[in-house]
Amino acid sequence: MPKTLTQPVTTLDPVWTRLEDEARAAILAEPVLGGLIHSSILHHPSLERALAYRFSLKLASGEMSEQILREIADEAHAAEPAIGQAARADLMAVFERDPACNRYLQPILFFKGYQAVQAYRIGHWLWTSGRRDMAYFVQARVSEVFGVDIHPAARIGRGIMIDHAHSIVVGETAVVGDNVSMLHSVTLGGTGKEDGDRHPKIGNGVLIGAGAKVLGNIHVGYCSRIAAGSVVLHDIPPCKTVAGVPARVVGEAGCDQPSVTMDQVLPESV
Question: Serine acetyltransferase N-terminal domain: from which residue to which, for each copy (predicted)?
């Protein structure tokens, strides 16, 4: 007699199931963290609810209570399922690309880059819903707590990995595609006081090295690679490597998916 599933296929969530399993194993290995792990993961019925809890816990202050922030996050996830879908893609991106990450549990509990991006997604929902002052509040708290300053109007895709995530700045009209990886101290900024569309557009699959500055309303082609410390002031064609101050093309990207391989070593000839 064939086996039957205990729940409908539409409700299966392998990412959440794995997180629950990892949480139970972590409590057995380190019981003193049982309260943290249970309240953050096992107390909740879904990843969305767990993320809402972490959002409220990390960003609450004397100015805004956990309860209010929790209600805002729950409302955002209920109104926009794409937020939870992007959170899963981001989680898998960190797990696959960061050699320091060997469990899904780590980004949710400990990695400020992942947590900052998920908080940005709530802020972006607030911005697009017309609640701009609350979106600014979320931006300010994310900057204060995580050291990551992403304007809530910026548009960021799925599968984003921000490693270490210290001193990240993403401007108001910036656009970041899917499957992008960036390291600490990256700036996607403007070049002056001009209004309007003034920030970079980053294509899918781009790798941005530590300390790189991409400035102005320029386009970085898909699957390109920006070397650490570079200052990019002009458009970059797809599948190229750029380096220098100001940055120039120094070769091909080196592989089909630089944001996934995370290879930042330039050829000796450069």
Answer: 15-119
3 state SS for the chain: CCCCCCCCHHHCCHHHHHHHHHHHHHHHHCHHHHHHHHHHHHCCCCHHHHHHHHHHHHHCECCECHHHHHHHHHHHHHHCCHHHHHHHHHHHHHHHHCCCCCCCHHHHHHCHHHHHHHHHHHHHHHHHCCCHHHHHHHHHHHHHHHCEEECCCCEECCCCEECCCCCEEECCCCEECCCCEECCCCEEECCCCCCCCCCCEECCCCEECCCCEEECCCEECCCCEECCCCEECCCECCCEEEECCCCEEEEECCCCCHHHHCCCCCCCCC
Assess contact for 239 and 224: CB atoms under 8 A.
Answer: yes
Q: Has this prediction a pTM greater than 0.85?
A: yes
Residue 4 pLDDT exceeds 80: no
Compute the distance between CA of residue 73 and CA of residue 167 in angstroms, rounded to an integer. 24
- Residue 165 and residue 145: Cα distance in Å, rounded? 12
CA distance 16 to 46: 7
Amino acid at 27: I
Task: Name the residue type at position 162.
Answer: I
Question: Which pair of tokens denotes residue 249?
Answer: 């093309």
Q: Which pLDDT tens digit goes with each residue over 35-92?
A: 999 999 999 999 999 999 999 999 999 999 999 999 999 999 999 999 999 999 999 9
CB atoms within 10 A of CB 104: 22
145 vs 227: CA distance, rounded Å: 28
For CA atoms 232, 236, 239, 245, the dihedral sign is negative
Write the single-letter amino acid at 115.
Q
| Pairwise CA distance, residues 75 & 221, whole Å | 35
The pLDDT value recorded for residue 231 is 98
User: Who contacts 102 (Cβ-Cβ below 8 Å, separation ≥6)?
Assistant: 95
